[in-house]
Amino acid sequence: MLLSEDDRRLLRILSEDTRITPEELSLQTNLSVDYITKKIKQWEKEKIIAKYSLLINWEQLDTDRVTALIDVKINPQRGHGYDKIAKRFQRFPEIQSVFLLSGNSDLCLVIEGRNMHEVAQFVSDKLSPLELVESTSTRFILRRYKEDGVEFFGEEKGPERLMFTP
Amino acid sequence: MKKYLAHVAQRLPASGAHEFFNLVSSMDNVISLGVGEPDFPTPWVMRESAIYSLEQGQTMYTSNLGIFELRQELSHYMSKNMSLNYSPATEILMTVGASEAIDLALRSLVEPGDAVLVADPSYASYSACAALAGAEVRCVPLREENDFRLQEEDLQKAYTSNCKVLILSYPNNPTGAIMERDDLLPIARFISENDLIVISDEIYSDLTYEGAHQPFAALPYMRNRTLHVGGFSKAYAMTGWRIGYACGPEELIDTMARIHQYTIMCAPIAAQIAALEGLRSGDMAKQEMIMEYDRRRRIMVNGFREMGLTCFEPRGALYAFPNISVTGLSSEHFAEELVKQQNVAVVPGTVFGSCGEGHIRCSYACATDVLKEALERMSRFVSQFDIG
Fold first, then answer.
1. Does residue A90 sit in the same domain as residue A122?
2. In chain A, how many domains are there?
3. Which domain holds residue A81?
4. How many whole angstroms separate alpha carbon B291 and alpha carbon B295?
5. What domains can be seen in chain B, in order of their start residue?
6. Residues of chain A contacting B295 with CB distance shorter than 8 Å
7. Does the model's ipTM exceed the 0.90 cut?
8. How many whole angstroms separate alpha carbon B5 and alpha carbon A164?
9. pLDDT in tens, A50-95
10. What gap in Å lies between CA B128 and CA A91, rounded to an integer?
11. Which residue of B has its CA nearest to A6?
């Protein structure tokens, strides 16, 4: 689907601030409130806007939570490629994301759990035994510096801006 | 000491509203809409290339004109974006900000007794540099009813036979006005008829939000009468690096380069390297900043109109220039009371010339939430006046 420049701008502003109202969007883009409301409804229906989500900086909270990236090598099935196994993976609520990759491994899964043990258990109990899974390699995220374009460790504060410049 | 100081330098005003600026500087928790520079840092790709160049020990002088690859890249940029062809070898000079280019141009063109036409209101350096070069400054009013576009008839009225140079600046600081091709054609005709040279400061050219920017030198017969001045400060958020440029006829660039050679030597090498990277790969970051300014521009103008002020629609640069005369206060008094009562700092229009009276310059180069807070406070301030 080709996006017009206006629609691209709308989606961009929305992706930065999902709480923005159609009225505010209209002011910022010069598009009518009607047009914006219709577009948003259409995108929601077509799952182009798939979810309004929140980015939490878990680094700042003292919670039990680990994220792992699991590289999975697959024996692809004749006639199905990787789709069948990928669809099976995506049903597990523990698995946050499923990506098909180029390179050494085939699929990359993002898994969240309360601790490393829980994730390891899930991999050995649920993933590795699957017939099509040839091998897995688990890497835990130790620290998040930047996610979804947001820097969690901002730049050091520089000299203050002048109050007036010509 | 005073008796030793040159008269021309002594006569330069310290700044248009010295006492007001001192007052603001002494206050805490002020939201400033007075800043004429982007609030973004320079895009990381550009900063990174400068850091790498320092690691590699690239800390020497460059050619007086600037690094050749940078002039080449700039020549491509001018050709692609402005439809103007300048030889990187002889017609482009890299300067310490666009301000140096304006100073060099005036010193290259003006002799005692010559006059320079300067729009009023305009960026305060034009008159100062013209005066330092020994010129008589002749002001040409820009009027709100003409959307602050320079009119031929006003030029005609200000013109005297000793006029040699017109300084033009669109998109405009402080008004945010732009001039389109049809607006500029009568000005170009006037320039030809009166045998004038134009210094066209187009530092805000990339920050044009509606319509395409019209470079003055690209108008018929204007290339050889125009010095095109630009820079990286605004569009690439590089104010502190001090890097600008001038493109123009070879003889003018050559003369400017001679003054530059004896006074400055060359623009800072790290700034030139970062600018080169900007031209090569900074476009995406630049476009993102421009989109963000455009959003804020709409929020600001709408805010002024909602509080009952008339605000001319700024279509370029980083500023809105609302009319505050309905409050009955002068520009300076308005700015002073606003900062005292609501801790919001704006620049009185008179800082940019007497025709700026009745206006304030507000920059939207600040985060959206800060901007909204400033507008709310201004609205509270304005509501005490009976402005119907």
1. yes
2. 2
3. 58-142
4. 6
5. 2-42+284-382 (3.90.1150.10), 44-280 (3.40.640.10)
6. 13, 28-29
7. no
8. 27
9. 999 999 988 888 888 899 999 999 987 777 788 889 999 999 999 9
10. 70
11. B291
